[in-house]
Amino acid sequence: MALEKWLHMIDCVVDVIYMSKKGKFTKRRIRVLAVKDGYIRAFCLNSGAQRVFLVANLLAAELVNPHVS
Description:
The protein is mainly beta. It has a single domain, classed as SH3 type barrels (Roll). It is built from 1 helix and 5 strands; from the N terminus they run H-E-E-E-E-E.
């Protein structure tokens, strides 16, 4: 699956549709920092802060930039 391929590319920028624990859907642009044990640690470009995302709650992803310059 392309989603998994992109998420293992550290420093790539990805647009994601994410469902929170409370069932709220958000679209975020993230820079992947690490992927481990079903979680993605990323810098959220929308909020300007680090966030942790549960891979199982990612509904869609689109690669924006394979490497941050």
